[in-house]
Design brief:
Layout lengths: L2 H13 L7 H8 L14 H19 L1 E8 L2 E8 L1 E2 L2 H5 L5 E2 H5 L2 H22 L6 H18 L10
Antiparallel strand pairs: 1-2, 3-4
Helix pairs in contact: 6-7
Length: 162
């Protein structure tokens, strides 16, 4: 993938629309077999249709929410969360999504979900790190990252002396 060519094509498409880049405009431009973007799309409608149905299925799965009761400073708190999550190990073997109840009842799966959340937060930070308004958020994320790293590799225990 030649990122510079793609970037230039996208800039050209946006320039034709007062700087606004719309996905529909990108697809329309890529329909031309001579377009540098053409090969990045699946033009076989049967194949593309099946791929899109899989995207839709994932959207449906991620849309379902459940109420989760968790401990809080004042007793318990009821939160509305996704019913299913795709953990890295789910994606590795293409098994899909794991119910949140199973994740929360398994320490390794909970840790995996926390690691995924941190990766998502790091991606957000890279995207928005230029906004000083979020400096406090990034500092809080760094504290969580350190806490999880300690949990992943606890300090070695001192050996008892005889």
């Amino acid at each position: 993938m030649d990122t510079q060519i793609i970037a230039q094509e996208l800039a050209n498409i946006a320039a034709q629309r007062d700087g606004q880049l719309l996905p529909t405009a990108v697809v329309d431009a890529a329909r031309d077999p001579a377009s540098p973007l053409h090969t990045y799309f699946d033009w076989d409608d049967d194949s593309a249709g099946e791929k899109y149905r899989l995207v839709q299925a994932g959207m449906l799965i991620r849309r379902v929410k459940v109420h989760l009761v968790r401990p809080s400073g004042e007793g318990v708190q009821i939160v509305n969360v996704r019913a299913y999550h795709s953990l890295p190990e789910d994606r590795a073997d293409a098994s899909g999504y794991t119910p949140i109840e199973i994740i929360m009842s398994d320490e390794d799966k909970t840790f995996s979900l926390c690691q995924q959340a941190l990766a998502d937060l790091r991606a957000l930070q890279r995207k928005y790190e230029n906004l000083i308004e979020f400096e406090g958020v990034w500092k809080a994320v760094a504290k969580v990252r350190i806490a999880l790293a300690r949990k992943a590799s606890p300090a070695p225990q001192a050996e008892a002396s005889p």
